[in-house]
Amino acid sequence: MAMNYNAKDEVDGGPPGAPGGAAKNRRPDNTAFKQQRLPAWQPILTAGTVLPTFFIIGLIFIPIGIGIFVTSNNIREIEIDYTGTEPSSPCNKCLSPDVTPCICTINFTLEQSFEGNVFMYYGLSNFYQNHRRYVKSRDDSQLNGDPSALLNPSKECEPYRRNEDKPIAPCGAIANSMFNDTLELFLISNDSAPYAIPLKKKGIAWWTDKNVKFRNPPGGENLEERFKGTTKPVNWLKPVYLLDSEKDNNGFINEDFIVWMRTAALPTFRKLYRLIERTEDLHPTLPAGRYYLNITYNYPVHSFDGRKRMILSTISWMGGKNPFLGIAYITIGSISFLLGVVLLVINHKYRNSGNTADITI
Amino acid sequence: MKEKELKQMTIPAQRLMARCAGEEKRVGTRTVFVGNHPVSETEAYPAQRFCDNRIVSSKYTLWNFLPKNLFEQFRRIANFYFLIIFLVQVTVDTPTSPVTSGLPLFFVITVTAIKQGYEDWLRHRADNEVNKSTVYIIENAKRVRKESEKIKVGDVVEVQADETFPCDLILLSSGTSDGTCYVTTASLDGESNCKTHYAVHDTIALCTAESIDTLRATIECEQPQPDLYKFVGRINIYSNSLEAVARSLGPENLLLKGATLKNTKKIYGVAVYTGMETKMALNYQGKSQKRSAVEKSINAFLIVYLFILLTKAAVCTTLKYVWQSNPYNDEPWYNQKTQKERETLKVLKMFTDFLSFMVLFNFIIPVSMYVTVEMQKFLGSFFISWDKDFYDEEINEGALVNTSDLNEELGQVDYVFTDKTGTLTENSMEFIECSIDGCKYNGVTEEVDGLSQTDGPLTHFDKADREELFLRALCLCHTVEMKTNDTVDGATESAEFTYVSSSPDEIALVKGAKKFGFTFLGTRNGHMRVENQRKEIEEYELLHTLHFDSVRRRMSVIVKTQIGEIYLFCKGADSAVFPRVPVDEIEPTKRHVEHSAMDGYRTLCVAFKKITPDDYEKINRQLVEVKLALQDREEKMEKVFDDIETNMNLIGATAVEDKLQDQAAETIDALHAAGLKVWVLTGDKMETAKSTCYACRLFQTGTELLELTTKSIEECERKEDRLHELLIEYRKKLLREFPKSTIRSHKKAWTDQEYGLIIDGSTLSLILNSSQDSSSNNYKSIFLQICMKCTAVLCCRMAPLQKAQIVRMVKNLKGSPITLSIGDGANDVSMILESHVGIGIKGKEGRQAARNSDYSVPKFKHLKKLLLAHGHLYYVRIAHLVQYFFYKNLCFILPQFLYQFFCGFSQQPLYDAAYLTMYNICFTSLPILAYSLLEQHINIDTLTSEPRLYMNISGNAMLQLGPFLYWTFLAAFEGTVFFFGTYFLFQTSSLEDNGKVYGNWTFGTIVFTVLVFTVTLKLALDTRFWTWINHFVIWGSLAFYVFFSFFWGGIIWPFLKQQRMYFVFAQMLSSVSTWLAIVFLIFISLFPEILLIVLKNVRRRSARRNLSCRRASDSLSARPSVRPLLLRTFSDESNML
């Protein structure tokens, strides 16, 4: 703004009728800036500079695209819908609210073995976690362990703020609607009893969420004590301090809870449920074969025409299965390359009949 | 009886006023009591109240500044819109907080208010200077010192030499015995000569304060009206007897405010019009805020975007309720409404939903655009005042920018209206050369004591005699008056005199004669005194002056020498003189005259004849007789003059240079080449103006002139019929010439026959106000058709308001062309104010024009760079800025709009609130500001040397529908790419190699990151002039965005209710897929732009090559055209008054 100040002097130095111009030399400064003659790079794109760029982009994008595409294709993924709306589905019985707890089992077969770490997701459809009323219905101070917010949750949590004159912890619609189906995976082997695949429930949330953003309220050793004076969310079966038996995965820092609290971007979404870590021996994590999924069916989605799925997926360096990026890169790379060729031809032609081109500057 | 007289007088006045179309009708008369003395107890006039003598040009006072300024500001659509949005945010539960739009709005309003307040303060200061100046008023026979603003109507005011009149005065008496005074109205109508004003006979003697106080009189006059040259009134003087003596008053009795008293010690006058009712003030038009065409485009775009916004909001609201009609969508178990929400009326809910959507999408019309535009204009205008090319050594000043709102308008000008005197010309004439008896003398390099011959025969016996005769003729044959400057230093008095004349030519001639040793010493008792080369004083008795008129084109004097010989000296245009001298004398002189005329000088021929006493007797009788004639006096005089001026002998010819301003011709050439139409509007005589127009190449040799002047019309009995005929005839001519002018391109029409139009003030008023019926409209439209076909138009004898009328007329033409007026005198003020852009020249005639202009420059030549370089650049810059702003905000908001389809139309913002607020203020504002201040898509030097480039942007080319749609589609394309690119990216279960999932804020942040990079890089692609500032700002903005995002997500902010962004950005960047997607999306968004640039560039290269070829050939062929090559002589145009 220094230049602003100077400028004011210049412009208003000679107000109408003001005398005394004689003494002051009003000759404008001959600086490059004021005379608009700053040294400048004036790029002119010519065919010579642009054509190689097109080729280079083509040459870079196509291999990247192919790499991504291949990687994505190598990812194994299986999706099992267990909503149970179809009468034939084993989970159909769980649609009626009377059966509690309802446990259903779905059989499936892995045609190919899943190698490396396998990730287990649950997926919901037609579930608007990104609805404005829903997204804002939380109190991050409470979740961060603020004692005052614990007992006096934010107004944003309405109508899940208080229940029977007690503050709800954790408050809000998001927490209230936390996914509470339990999924268990069993490998069926012919010679022995079904083998329960070990599911790891830690390490599924963002590290920063788990360690910084979410904190249990301070207080005594006993978690229940720390949550004293609060009540559980209306739809929950058990209070927040009973979410898990392990101490570092209980209360607000329960990872299932944290994962749920990160609202999804789209109405059809997946959330990480469990990790299946690869075993040390040479066996694949999930060998090909028959499996069954044991579901403790608590979460109602039928009322809003939603669907529930369980997804098993391996992960590459670029994440889950996603053909989009690979195809996109290959397409753009090819177009770029092609355009390079076309422009080369045009440029060549133009050079031959150069001067007849019409003038439009 | 008195009543009757009054009526008779007022009727013509009313008729006059009724004729002045567009002027406020002021009916009735006012009665002024001289000295505010009651005339008698018996006659009681109803007390009239008049306004005081305060001049107010300021807009605000301290008290009304805040409400008035706020009102004015909120009258702007945009500001009002943001106010509404802000109020909605305050009252309704909206997705974004009121701060996001309230803060920027407050900022904009404050900045604008400060700027306007400051400007008004300057005006107050200027007003005060005028209002507080001291004047002397005669009160109770005493001279009382007062402030100018205290003058009341009826006060007797004393004005001394070289003071300006503080209000409109009726002259009562001057120091002289004949009751005359000399006045120059330079600052009013631009005429710098002295005019004589008269006092009424009965008051001449009242030369002292005491005597003037005894005067008992009333003045009845019309109510104020703006015409400077009309005044009708009557003074009733009550001497000792109660019977009043009535004398009529005319414009010759009225001294106008703003005029200056010259050559008269002091005068007494009675104030009749004061303050804002003076003719000068009435000639100022109200200060209307000028809006540039770009601003109008902005408003148009704004309406389009407002429409888009409303459509979006309406679509979303409708779809929301369609979607919600499914009960499980409206209120699923996991997302229940509060009690309050359930109870709200559905209609009300829909309305608030609509408003919420508006708020959510309101960033599509960014408040920051106005801040940026204001800043760009404000800061950008400094480059004009900083430009050292506009610096003039003589006045030690550069350009001045009075308003920064119109910078870009300088690049859009279609019509240039220029004043002549002082603008095109220096307003100073110089004697260049003469031809005596067929020998040419170059006057410039000569010593005082003699002439040296430059060509022709060397020896001539009577050469010296002829030379002296010639110089005597120059000294005698004129109407120049001497003006002695009353310098304090008495010793130098003899040297301190100047010549005063209505015609600068005459002064130049007399000065020229002085250079050669013959000095005109003035007229004393009817004797002209001349000091000859031998320092002797010769006296000549001035017997008769045969005044100049434009039909005869010459003037003569008849003088008697000391020894009793009587001579007639005549000077005039060659065409007027040659037929009256012996044929054999003409040839050599004619050659010289033509040669001088080709050099662009104004030439005059000088002739003489000796008159025998007998002849003189006859002539004298004739002249006296004819001067007293009551009927057809003019015609009779003409005839007598004609008879007298015969059988003369040619002595020689003179050449006078009407000095054009430096590079005036080149400037006009450049303006023509840039496709501008240049009109000269002058109060000056037609002949003078015409010759100037030739000299500055407004009219070229091949230009065919169409004249619509009093001269060409008065030949006929019925003026209107003749006018009609002429109009029709000219139109036919032009339409024949340009049968398909609408189809033909600019360039083509250029090479054809060019037409110039000359019109004078009275004809113009005939056309504009001829009668109230439809024919006047018809005239006007025909006239306009003619005007539009002519490349150059000269309007002479214009009153200030007529100039404005012309400008207004052109302004309202089809397609509303942009007009620019340039002038230096107060007579140009009204046109400067009327036109889109007013430019003042800091001339010799005061600072009125410069003060009222939007920009002022020292010289006319500066117009070239101002328009071609500055105007062009400013236009390109601001046009790009505007388009870019709309573009980047559509890009910004479109993903948010699309997101509504995926979030149940719940008004969920896609981006975090910080991003929403900062996007326009921090992340993307500085690069475009730097661009809009520094961009030079074409070099300044190229712009000035290639005026043709100016045509590329004419007609607001960059803000037309085409470019606008291009930008809009580009934005729509990019916005769609951003959103759906990210959408498809999110179809996977995880983007990270550890299987963790991202939420909605990561989605928004990816879109936003791509957005910020794309719009910034898009600007980088458009930047053709990368200074270090551009580099710094563009890369700095991107770096700042990244830095800010890390910072914003790196801390649990205690004041935030939600920690949405906590580590979102960092987490996002830990994914390879995201990186790849961001790069890919940026690239694909810019791809069409890159492609377009490449294609354009190939074409531009070819154009440039052609251009350089052409330039090379031009420089070979067109070089000699710099010097005006005039094949016709000027002598036809030169004249005297």
Automatic annotation (TrEMBL), chain A:
- Would I find DNA-binding among this entry's keywords? no
Which keywords does the record carry? Cell membrane, Cytoplasmic vesicle, Disulfide bond, Glycoprotein, Golgi apparatus, Lipid transport, Membrane, Transmembrane, Transmembrane helix, Transport
Output the GO biological process annotations, alphabetical, semicolon-separated.
positive regulation of neuron projection development; positive regulation of phospholipid translocation; positive regulation of protein exit from endoplasmic reticulum; protein localization to endosome; xenobiotic transmembrane transport
**Main location per UniProt?**
membrane
Q: Where are the transmembrane segments?
A: 44-70, 324-346
* Cell location: Apical cell membrane; Cytoplasmic vesicle, Secretory vesicle membrane; Golgi apparatus; Membrane
Q: InterPro entries recorded for this chain?
A: CDC50/LEM3_fam
- Answer whether the UniProt record assigns the keyword Transmembrane helix to this protein: yes
Q: Which Pfam families match?
A: CDC50
Sample GO molecular function, one term:
structural molecule activity
- Gene Ontology cellular component terms for the protein in this record: apical plasma membrane; early endosome membrane; endoplasmic reticulum; Golgi apparatus; late endosome membrane; phospholipid-translocating ATPase complex; transport vesicle membrane
UniProt topology in membrane? Multi-pass membrane protein
Renumbered residue ranges of the record's region Disordered: 1-28
PANTHER family, from UniProt?
A: CELL CYCLE CONTROL PROTEIN 50, CELL CYCLE CONTROL PROTEIN 50A
- Please give the family membership noted in the entry: Belongs to the CDC50/LEM3 family.
Question: What is this protein identified as?
Answer: Cell cycle control protein
| Phylogenetic placement of the source organism | Eukaryota, Metazoa, Chordata, Craniata, Vertebrata
In the UniProt record, what gene is named as encoding this protein? TMEM30A
